[in-house]
Automatic annotation (TrEMBL):
It comes from Paraburkholderia aromaticivorans. It comes from the Bacteria. This is Sugar ABC transporter ATP-binding protein. Keywords: ATP-binding, Cell inner membrane, Cell membrane, Membrane, Nucleotide-binding, Transport. Pfam families: ABC_tran, Wzt_C. Belongs to the ABC transporter superfamily.
């Protein structure tokens, strides 16, 4: 029997969320009459079709860990979060939670549209187990963070989508949660409020709050999360280091779903069980193969794929004398050099060579492509060549990786003959401590002049 239970904090004090083989089935009806027939004759199954939003999902999250949940629309992300929150019960499996859960799910969830913002604050906080006195102590902080002014006393139905999110997030972070769940709702906020929210999320993370973060923004997942879980078709397709998982997910989305991977409804019968077991076995193999990637950072590529793998013969970061170098000093000249062997039959006019330099969280710091500059013509005899990009090292102290790409830019979205994320690795060293990611060419000039008499 599926259950949502309070975790035994003595046996597992550091585990905040434990999901064990959770599955969720929905019955889909063609007409309202079919639904009524199913209620009257519950043993008959021909009135509905089964849709498994989740299938045998297991997840363990420790105290203070931030885990990203990624996947295309309809992959089961929101269903999983609702089961963890307790707003849905799993069809099978068990969920155990250690502590108070505050969730920011779909826009406006948990708000009574007829109540004012103030009344909804008290209602939501009370539902999370806070007393009236505790809410009163927290209210000023909630009101200040939300920044909705006099609208706090207006009905929520008059709020814009941004005001919804401001108030909902303010409540969620002020109720002292053990678990904070965020399901893409922040995407509707303005840039300033998003930055404010991300700073607060980092504070909560440092204070030991467990965070589940759902987003289609790979950069945000890599920045905030140590670990990521990729859901596809209701199953865990991959789990592990956030960089490695998001790299595989980016590849998958760039290539598009393969045959038989489209979303849809099905009548799942006992005859289809072997296929489901084989799919689960394949998913487990993918998960296992992903885990070592995180431990090999700096030794081999994080991700390597494309329609013509092998076209990039070599990719290097060299010094000005074309020598291989692992550490570059501030403002030292660098040469990014690729050796390319072009595939046969490609359109050279649409060809582009690109590189980017990323930090170890996967954030693009420097990006350059021949397509944007349009200075190089690849329409020449022969299929092998070398290309160089020259720059100065303006990166702050840290560890970085090179991305090498051979692109087909004939369409609106680049397609990749080859993409290597982590073609090589290097470090930057700056003698003195500097703030920021980059060392900029800034000069200072001080002018001391006598102030005019009329301004004294």
């Amino acid at each position: 029997m599926p259950a949502l239970t309070e975790m035994n904090t003595i046996d597992r004090p550091e585990t905040t969320i434990q999901v064990s083989n959770a599955s969720k089935r929905f019955d889909i009806y063609e007409t309202p009459l079919d639904r009524l027939k199913h209620i009257v004759f519950p043993r008959r199954t021909r009135y509905s079709r089964e849709f498994w939003a989740l299938r045998d999902v297991s997840l363990s999250v420790s105290r203070g860990e931030t885990v990203g949940i990624i996947g295309r629309n309809g992959s089961g992300k929101s269903t999983l979060l609702q089961i963890i929150c307790g707003t849905l019960r799993p069809t099978a499996g068990d969920i155990a939670i250690n502590g108070r859960v505050a969730a920011l799910l779909e826009l406006g969830a948990g708000f009574n549209l007829e109540f004012s913002g103030r009344e909804n604050v008290y209602l939501n906080a009370a539902m999370l187990g806070m007393t009236a006195g505790q809410i009163e102590q927290k209210f000023a902080g909630i009101e200040k963070f939300a920044e909705i002014g006099d609208f706090i006393d207006q009905p929520v139905k008059t709020y814009s989508s941004g005001m919804y999110v401001r108030l909902a997030f303010a409540v969620a972070i002020h109720v002292d949660p053990a678990v904070l769940i965020i399901d893409e709702a922040l995407a509707v906020g303005d840039a300033r409020f998003q930055a404010k929210c991300f700073n607060k999320i980092k504070e909560l993370k440092e204070s030991g709050v467990t965070i589940l973060f759902v987003s289609h923004d790979v950069g945000s997942v890599r920045t905030l999360c140590e670990r990521a879980v990729w859901l596809d078709g209701g199953r865990v397709r991959m789990e592990g280091n956030a960089f490695a998982v998001t790299a595989q997910y980016t590849q998958f989305m760039s290539e598009g779903p393969g045959e038989g991977e489209t979303l849809g409804l099905s009548r799942q019968t006992p005859d289809s069980a072997p296929a489901r077991n084989e799919q689960a076995k394949e998913s487990n193999q993918i998960v296992e193969s992903a885990r070592p990637v995180a431990t090999t950072l700096g030794v081999e590529p994080i991700n390597h794929w494309g329609t013509h793998v092998g076209s990039i013969v070599s990719a290097q970061v060299l010094d000005s004398s074309y020598r291989h170098q692992n550490v570059f000093a501030a403002f030292e000249p660098m040469v990014v050099r690729f050796a390319i062997r072009l595939p046969e039959g490609i359109c050279r006019r649409a060809l582009s060579v690109a590189f980017s330099i990323k930090d170890t969280k996967g954030t693009d710091l420097i990006v350059r492509t021949t397509h944007d500059e349009k200075d190089i013509d690849f329409d020449f005899d022969g299929s092998e060549f070398e290309i160089e990009f020259r720059l100065r090292n303006q990166l702050n102290t840290g560890r970085y990786l090179l991305v090498a790409a051979l692109e087909d830019r004939s369409g609106a979205v680049p397609q990749y003959y080859e993409y290597i994320e982590g073609a090589c690795y290097f470090s930057s060293y700056v003698e003195s401590d500097r703030y920021g990611l980059f060392l900029t060419d800034v000069t200072e000039r001080l002018r001391v002049e006598a102030m005019p008499a009329d301004r004294q």
